[in-house]
């Protein structure tokens, strides 16, 4: 970290904010692409279910999320040097801000559909955030599109021209680089890979359908599989760890138990790893990447997940050993990838 | 059709050949993109199963397919005017030839893996065809990549920048246009969409796995579902049509019966239409096209298939009515799309 003083170097600092299902994470990136500040607050969630809520109620909840974004930006500003306020070349408050959100962000910055951030869905996200950050250039984009921008430009996938980024968090996010450029599709919604249906008779998904890939292969999916196993009596160690109630087992309990050597927990992580590899093989059929980057909180469990994922991919991908290999690597920026990419996008004015 | 006479107009004629699971189809395309000749021969198939066959045996079968390609080219040449032989500006035998093949065609023109053309798999396809067409420029590419080139440039998807072409034939082929260009991925294998697994416990696929999309949603998939229904006694009219043996029911029998009004056959076509729409919804999650073009023999059944496909897509696509529409249209070039695109590709020297 360093404190700014209105120097011209300060002009190169950009802010990136990643709105996740559980936290709003912000970083300040300097002109040399170093992270010089970080801030985070919990993602506001109302206790009121959104199903059946009025547009006003939903709008209020979206506004609370926008408040959290503004709070993170204020913290970043304080950290990198509010002292530069008034400097002509980099006035306080003038820095560009990139904001990544999960779900279907259209080209006007509106969040059309977001199963894992329903409190931000349908409201005019760009206005909500823009009015809290007056005078700033705000760039809004899907979170995983920003994440793949970061990993492709300065992270784990530099040097590859065809990349898929898969973020394994509350759900699954996806960002796609084709021929060296982040591609967002005809309406901005490309890379919504977590909602490929992999089992039409599978468990219900917050998106309204059944058997989406993210029900099996995300942090949320891990929790789901673990609770099933716990209810069947197959996870005694994990259940003890999480207070004795099989229904309250969370994905984090399973990864912690797996890391400490619990063989039952490892089996559940391996099962999720298989599902991750299964979906990656499907993705490879469609876009044929040279490199797949895995990000999101779930990747913190490391090779316990990556090993089974790589094995399942090799076994399941069409053409198997007759095709050139696709490398599967963890994100260089870990959970910060989306925020780093958001800062890069803010500086460039978009995904270019 | 017109006969050439060594005129300069002849220089603009290119040949395109599409190798399918059942036929090798060739067309001659003039400089104004009109089809001026057509030729076809049956795809040679050995009675010998390829499983366990030696590389020499497989090579012999690949050579027979290459012979068929050369035969189609000779027929096209005869049709457009072998009389132009010797003309300095367009010597006989010098016309460029594009050849599309199903499966994973790499950047060197080698067919790495092809579940529906196993007799061409692994051999050096470019050499096999090239040595039969001496002095010609031969461009080899995945068949559906050529098909989407044709439909995007001069067919049903002109004016769209994000297009997916899905050919419903023996299997499913896929071609993808992103931001106005046909994209082939990191190794040339993008668009192998028929091998997305949609049911891990589904029926075995010639690719070696289970539950690939094309087992449910192609001409071959129609036959499979129909034989299941026939064995269960649910398709008496179709079984009668195909000689009384439920095991010998083919997809063509079902489409013919459906077109003549048989309600049982229509139900099977509708089921296939649902599966087509289901897979298109998955594809839309990944690449978000503005336009999806359906080609291949199965589309000949028209709205009996397209209706259920469009309804399933609208019901299943993520975001449903909150996202801008994606149009689903039949190919303008029908079963010729791959060959027309191959001719366009031959003329341009590739997919650019």
Polypeptide structure, described:
The structure is a homodimer of 352-residue chains. The first copy, chain A, has helices at residues 55-81, 125-130, 143-154, 214-217, 219-231, 236-241, 251-259, 263-287, 303-316, 337-348, and strands at residues 14-19, 23-29, 35-42, 97-101, 104-105, 111-113, 138-142, 163-168, 172-178, 181-183, 291-295, 327-330. Chain A is of the alpha/beta class. Chain A folds into two domains: 8-149 and 337-348, Nucleotidyltransferase, domain 5 (2-Layer Sandwich); 158-331, 2-Layer Sandwich (Nucleotidyltransferase, domain 5). In chain A, the strands form three sheets. Chain A has a five-stranded mixed sheet with strand order 3-2-1-4-7. A five-stranded mixed sheet of chain A has the order 10-9-8-11-12, with helices on both faces. In chain A, strands 5-6 form a two-stranded antiparallel ribbon. In chain A, helix 9 (303-316) links the parallel strand 11 and strand 12. In chain A, helix 3 (143-154) crosses helix 10 (337-348), helix 7 crosses helix 8 and helix 8 (263-287) crosses helix 9 (303-316). The longest helix of chain A has 27 residues, at 55-81. Mean pLDDT of chain A is 87; it is low at 1-9 and 83-93.
List descriptors:
homodimer; 352 residues; alpha/beta; Nucleotidyltransferase, domain 5; 2 domains; disordered N terminus
Give the low-pLDDT segments of chain A.
1-9, 83-93
What integer is the average pLDDT of chain A?
Answer: 87
Give the topology string of chain A: H per helix, E per strand.
EEEHEEEHEHEEEHHHHHEHEH
**Helical segment count of chain A:** 10
CATH architectural type of the largest domain in chain A: 2-Layer Sandwich
CA-based shape of chain A: globular
Percentage of residues assigned to helices of chain A? 25-40%
Give the oligomer, counting copies of the same chain as homo and different chains as hetero. homodimer
Structural class of chain A: alpha/beta
The strands making up the biggest β-sheet of chain A line up spatially as 3-2-1-4-7
Question: What's the count of strands of chain A?
Answer: 12
Report the C-alpha radius of gyration of chain A, rounded: 20 Å
Q: Characterize the biggest β-sheet of chain A.
A: 5 strands, mixed
